[in-house]
Amino acid sequence: MNTIYFNLLKYVHSPFLGEEVNVGILLCFPEQGRLEFRHPANFKRLRNLYKSFSERQLLTYLDSFDKCVARANTELVNQLSPEQYAAFITRELVPVDATVLRFGPLTKAVVEVDDDPQLVADQYYELYFSETQPAPRSGQHKRESFIISHFRRNLEAHDAGVFQLLRRNVEVRAAATAIRFDYVWQNGTENYIKPISFDLADAGEINRKAVYTHGWLHLLAPIAEAEKYRFDLLLALPTDRRLFPAFDKAVEILNATIAPKQIVTEGRLEEYSRDAANYLRQHYQGGPVGMYAE
Description:
Helices cover 40% and strands 23% of the residues. With 294 residues, it is an alpha+beta fold. It folds into two domains: 128 residues, no CATH class; 140 residues, 3-Layer(aba) Sandwich (Rossmann fold), CATH 3.40.50. Strands 1, 2, 3, 4 and 5 form a five-stranded antiparallel sheet that branches. α4 crosses α5, α5 crosses α8 and α6 packs parallel to α7. It is globular, with a radius of gyration of 21 Å. The protein starts with a strand and ends in an 11-residue tail after the last helix.
């Protein structure tokens, strides 16, 4: 496991009012010597809150942050200490005495050694900003990180802290393939969670992804049956309603495999999250003998 750091960037329209709004997130991956910065493409919420708010000016600042972080990533060659990371923020991005933009306190988190920093940054961005951002527009697609962040948020909404009881980033290996699953929880079977977005450009892409998923499900089926695994597939529908028939066909392809599985579409995600949260809290057992009561 590796420790990472992140800070939320906050907009302060008036220090007198004492109101802060999150407008970005900066993440530091010390082991990789890498930084990732994410921010929304627009700020309708702030336009509605403050009549004198200049979205153009804020986006100019954020674009400069993007460039600064990109430049830093080409120059970083060693691991970053928390002190070096903090110094980068105050030297290159926002001074300590800044008024309009401020970084919040440094927060630590833990990720797997082989987690992709860009994917981790996407997940944290969607965790903190998906509630205040509009649904994807035409040309924008829901990614796997969008699905998993909604699962996590639903889980925490039902029981704050229960997310920590999940096993995460677990790999299942077969002779011909190995698939990594985001989370695992247990309720008689071990349930391996895999987000799959079918919010793709056309029916052909949806079909190819469904066939690929069917393939690895088929290859992992003997192991799943022997070890009492179940593969829980969290599916995102196409944004383009004209692709719904292709999505229905994709679900048929997934159902055609004999692998133990549960298909959870976006409409059922809240119910699935609630069931997982309830079971985790009721049956969790700490200690070396196991994570869950049978």
